[in-house]
Amino acid sequence: MTSSYPPPSVPAQDWLRTSLPDAERWTPSWPVEPRPSAWKAWGRNALLFVLTAASVYVTGGPILVVSLMSILLAHEMGHYVACRYYKVDATLPFFIPFPILGLVGTLGAFIRIKSPIPHRKALFDIGVAGPLAGFVVCVPVLLLSLGEMTVRRLDASAAGFLLGDPLLLKAVTPLAVGAVPDDYTVVIGPLGLAAWFGLFMTALNLMPIGQLDGGHVVYALLGRRAHVVSRAAWWICVGLIYFSPSWILWAILVRILGRQHPRTLNDYEPVGRGRALVGLLALAIFVASFVPSPVVGSWDTVRQLVAGFVSS
Question: Are 127 and 216 in contact (CB under 8 A)?
């Protein structure tokens, strides 16, 4: 995930420089901030990485730490390396420990982009690099998780979460356990949980909304018309609440993160056919990773819980 801010006022010669054919990698002309302290440059990031690894370890053990942190790190470093290539000022990844609820122990990670994006090609590459890199690491983790999968009869009294299946996970599960009867469920291990969360975060970030990764990609491809897609996608996200109350939280988060996308310094140069094809690849990854109901549960379940709480 990336977060950025609208670009500052830029001299006219910089707009011209970004429109030149050889300006894909450019040198900003405005004053560079003083070199930050070690704490601001990487100390906070290292501390949050350690705390997040510890949180994931407490939640799911060492296998979950290695597999999940690898997926998240690949995603964020994809963004960071692309920023460095285009000489866009960006922070190292900030990981978010979350040892509550006992699912995976983290809410993911993000980098902060602190300088303007020079043009739409750079915006596209920075936006798409994270999901592609994370997905490349997620796929082998998913394949390795097949050896951990088991099948057991559904038991309403058993502890644990019932997770919805991304399309890709649903496609490969029969390779490990065959056909699953209606009254049974597939139990995944730490590798499967890491792959599930990696796919879920990939799909969430690829939503074509605001300043999510998918929002960057859509803005790079469509320019200022992207706000139409962004608005429609957010309302679809709201509509998913009808199928699962678990989407309430994500609809709120997407709304917060999905504010209007800022312009690049050169919004007029097209990204080209090659990047449009990569955009179709990103769309396919989004579909394969999408989870309509992340945590299985219906509004009937919510009503039963509320009724039980009131009666008690």
Answer: yes
